[in-house]
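Quick one from the shared queue. A colleague (R.T.) flagged Phosphohistidine phosphatase SixA as missing a structural entry in our internal table.

Convert sequence to structure tokens.
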Amino acid sequence: MKVFIMRHGEAAHYAASDAERELTQHGRSQSTAVARACEKQGFKDFDLVLVSPYIRAQQTWETISELFCARELQTYDEITPYGDSEEASSYVSALAQVKHLDTVLLVSHLPLVGYLTAEFVTNLTPPMFPTSGLACVEFDPDSQKGELLWHIHP
């Protein structure tokens, strides 16, 4: 299966809380550009999309959903900035096995996106993600091993 891990687009620096920070127009443009690059790689349909409840992640999905299609969409509380990468990767792996998923997209935050990538890819140091960065991992839920196929930057 393929697991896609995306960091939200550029967000405003200030809001009433971190969870309420909104995407900037530049963040929307970056996210669209990355989605187009992913589409050129042959991916635009996802069996499952998991999105952080934070506004900037929700707005990133809203922006890229103009190019992408989700068969199932869930807001997933465990993929906020300081979520548990081990728990989130186990959840994705379990869902993949139960629902026979081929493609999953997670829209999340730093630092979690790097740790998530490292959970799916054997012996990988957590990579840095710029805003709107997107990684594609080939992952085998049975063996729990994966390989980083590519990483798109805006």
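The mean pLDDT is 97.
The first strand starts at residue 2 and ends at 7.
Added to the table.
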